[in-house]
Amino acid sequence: MSNIVAFVEGYICLGGKLHKRSLYVDVKKGCIVDGREVKAYEIYNLHGQIIAPAFLELQTNGCAGFHFTNFETPESYQAQLNAISRYLVSTGVGSFWATLPTVSPKVFKQVLPFLKPQTFPNGAELLGAHCEGPWLNPAKKGAHDATLMQLPDSADANDIYGADNLRSCVKMVTLAPELAGSSKLISSLRQNLRMIVSIGHSQADYDTGIRALEIGASTLTHVFNAMEPFNHRSPGLAGLISSSQKPYYSIIADGIHLHPAVVSMAFRTNPERCILITDSVEMAGKPDGLYPGHAQVPHKQRKVGNKVTIEGTDTLIGSCISLDECVRNLVSYSGCSLAEAIRCVTENVANLMGIYDRGILAPGRRADLVILDTQGHVKGVWIKGQKVQ
Hints:
6-stranded mixed β-sheet
């Protein structure tokens, strides 16, 4: 029996386009191989379906009933991570970064050791943590707890996250660039730790955003949300997506956080820098209803469809959308091709995060794959060349 499987009679998704060609995978090594060097292989007939890199989820606060800030015991936390991994892979996600919102240093230090890069059986791989806070502007707090927010010039990253966690777990930080000490912090995170620094939850103007990009920030967190509104005379941070710096930027394509026309405009501005995120919370994958709070939101939470708000208010906490639904929504909202939308959850994310072993269908990369029908519905997932059961 050959170690090589050839995925044939379908389309591979590469560079925002669909290509009618076969894909060859060494299932023993778990990687994509050059078909020209293959002599014997088994056939997997795609029957006209699409094969793409398994999706990369850059921002999820939780799902499947669990929020990443909710720590009880090491055993229960690890079990919940495993459940989240299984849920995410069912939506086409092969790898993810766990997002921690603004919480106390105690909670950061308690939780981060469990969010080191790790694998799970038959599930998506955890690649580390995205810390969204605590250096955010209270005026743009969204559902974050403003009482826990800090100024960069008075709160050292090692003291907030823990020195070991900062080096082994934290892969991305979102901060507000107008805060005192933010320039020094951005430079330190980027130059000393090679951290991805994102701009968000901010009142910064366009020029402040430009300066942040020049000293090391490279992306914007859920653009248009939790920042100053775009104005034709004062574009704010949202205006950066068309700047010569060409930052990456994430959007929540759930039709709730952004109007579909704004989603389309954001995507069309720079399709090679646009990233789709869910910003999901723990109610994702759960029935509608009223749910308890946690370390981020000490209030009851109301879920109606994909929308979650603090009970009794209109404050959005996050979304309950899945990443495959975001892909289909982008196609619907913008009229882009399915392949263009898929690039926003694969290649663009890999390029931002400096992940060179997955996210693109190329020889030598990991065979983390998702098979989709022509409408973008998940039909199967492979992790390192093995089909997820």
